[in-house]
Amino acid sequence: MRAADERGWVITPEAVALLQNHDWPGNVRELRNVLERAAALAPSEVLDGAVISRAMPPGAARSMITSTSGQALAHTIADTERQAIIDALATTGGQKSAAALRLGVSRSQFYEKLKRYNIDI
């Protein structure tokens, strides 16, 4: 399930988990700043774990990723990359070249990632 705010932004469960695992020493003001930064960084109205991680203060994202669900860092990164690919494909209506462009990777790299993560469209 995904949460959406009044402007139509979608926050993935992974992003929510990352936000919940941070201790927020700056309280609501820091959370608001991170969400505003994430919205500015996001290539679409989807705020996923990768976008939230980039919007976090330096060092915070790394500690959150390693603590999320007790998963190994490599596994979490792979899950994040897989979800970013799926989201890009959904955003582009399944157009692989457009999704690769949106993610900033070459078409050949994109096809390798589709194969690696067993994503079939």
How is the topology of this model organized?
Layout: E1 3-4, E2 10-11, H1 13-20, H2 27-41, E3 46-47, H3 49-55, H4 60-67, H5 73-91, H6 96-103, H7 107-116
Parallel strand pairs: 2-3
Antiparallel strand pairs: 1-2
Notes on the structure:
The protein is 62% helix and 5% strand. Helix 3 runs antiparallel to helix 4 (60-67). Residues 1-5 have low confidence and may be disordered. The chain has 7 helices and 3 strands, in the order ββααβααααα. It has helices at 13-20, 27-41, 49-55, 60-67, 73-91, 96-103, 107-116; strands at residues 3-4, 10-11, 46-47. A hairpin with a 5-residue loop joins strand 1 (3-4) and strand 2 (10-11). The two termini are 22 Å apart. It is mainly alpha-helical and 121 residues long. Strands 1-2-3 form a 3-stranded mixed β-sheet.
Distance between the termini: 22 Å
Number of helices: 7
Helix content: 55-70%
Strand order of the largest sheet: 1-2-3
> Biggest β-sheet, characterized?
3 strands, mixed
Q: Which geometry do the CA atoms define?
A: elongated
Summed over residues and divided by their number, the pLDDT gives a mean of 79
Strand content: under 5%
> Measured on Cα atoms, how large is the radius of gyration?
15 Å
Low-confidence stretches: 1-5
Structural category: mainly alpha
What is the strand tally? 3
Helix-strand pattern? EEHHEHHHHH
